[in-house]
Amino acid sequence: MKRLEALDILRGLAIIGTLGTNIWLFSSFGDTSVLFGNGEEFWKTANGILQAFVLFLVNGKFLGMLTLLFGAGLELKRKRALKRGERWPGLYLWSCFLLLIEGYVHYLLVMEYDILMSYAITAIIVSFVVTKSDRTVKRVMISTGSLHFLMVVSVFLLTLLSPALSDEVNLNLYRDGSWIDQVMYRFDSFWIYRSESIFIIPLNVFLFLLGRKLLCLGVFAFDESGRRWRKKLLKIGIGALPFNFLLIVQGELFMFSVRYLFAPLLSLGYISLVIMLYEKKKNRFFFKRLSEIGRTALSCYILQNILSSYIFYGWGLGLGDRDNAFLTVSVLIIISCLLSLFSNVWLRFFPRGPFESWWRWLSYLPTKKTN
């Protein structure tokens, strides 16, 4: 099956967008409160305004987009497998296991807020769900969506009724500790840092299945049907926009509600808007670079986190913990440009990214052994 150019473009944008969120975690040495505001009047300083503006645009939105695209990608893989006469999920489960291992290694060596492990578990669940009837798939979507909604509401009520709990961040570890010290810290704190990955599994299942549904409806296709659906999704995104402002008004209170309820809805609007802009056939250079990043998404995701940790942590350049939004945004732009350059040059010589090639080889390794 031919690659869908819209998926590559959106995937590339989602990779840059997740960097736009994660970069603040690196620059603040893992202090998650930076994503939701710390109670200060941000509008009084240019630094605060810039930070609030960037995080309003990216926080949760591109994570939701990436999750939707992962679900669409799962459906494409399923269709390719069935077209080749292969069993499903079959070999795909081996790929999920590889993703789980990759996620753990990435968590341990690079970043404690890695999302790959959660995606791996979700993919295993969804790979079996999609083999069922449409009615069963719909029931699973309703069940997981409802469960996630109740979980977010429960967290909101606990936040409302209980005093704010701030994460204890070991600043000295990231400022003065070695890379090995940080690896050992992540190893010892595994379940603490994996709690979010477990919490969002119902949401991931819902978004995976929704992404699959969007693909089947033709949302990513450049035809009249796709355009009609994109207009509907854009209205949903616009409707969710005011609720995302709650993050700016009172981030600490509404942090879970915005990031895990309203941001994914806005992601639907982002998807529609990006494809609409691409269809105007302007800024082709920009979209081409996004497409290249999307084709090397896994490699760029890993590379951006390695670069960010080296730039901000003490074992590298040590530029973190400076409360300087302009510095953080500058690093975001620099790394994004480096990712674009890397993907452009690499794809001139190879059909896929380095980690993608390695992944493909490992994914088909069981079939090579049996043959």
Q: What are the key terms here?
A:
about 375 residues; 19 helices; mainly alpha; single chain; globular; about 0% strand
Mean pLDDT comes to 91
Shape: globular
* Number of extended strands: 0
How do the SSEs run, as a string of H and E?
HHHHHHHHHHHHHHHHHHH
**Gap between N and C termini:** 25 Å
Query: Helix fraction?
Result: over 70%
Secondary-structure class: mainly alpha
Poorly predicted runs of 5 or more residues: none
Characterize the biggest β-sheet.
none
Oligomer: single chain
> Count of DSSP helices?
19
Q: How large is the radius of gyration?
A: 20 Å
Strand content: under 5%
Outline:
The chain is mainly alpha-helical. It is built from 19 helices and no strands. It is globular.
Chain-wise SSE layout:
Layout: H1 5-27, H2 46-58, H3 61-83, H4 91-109, H5 116-129, H6 134-161, H7 171-176, H8 179-188, H9 190-193, H10 195-199, H11 201-217, H12 224-244, H13 246-249, H14 251-279, H15 284-295, H16 297-312, H17 325-349, H18 354-363, H19 365-370
Helix pairs in contact: 1-3, 1-15, 1-16, 1-17, 3-5, 3-11, 3-14, 4-5, 5-11, 6-11, 6-14, 12-14, 15-17, 16-17
Question: Could you please describe the fold and organization of this structure?
Answer:
The protein has 371 residues and is mainly α. 77% of the residues lie in helices and 0% in strands. The chain contains 19 helices and no strands. The radius of gyration is 20 Å and the shape is globular.
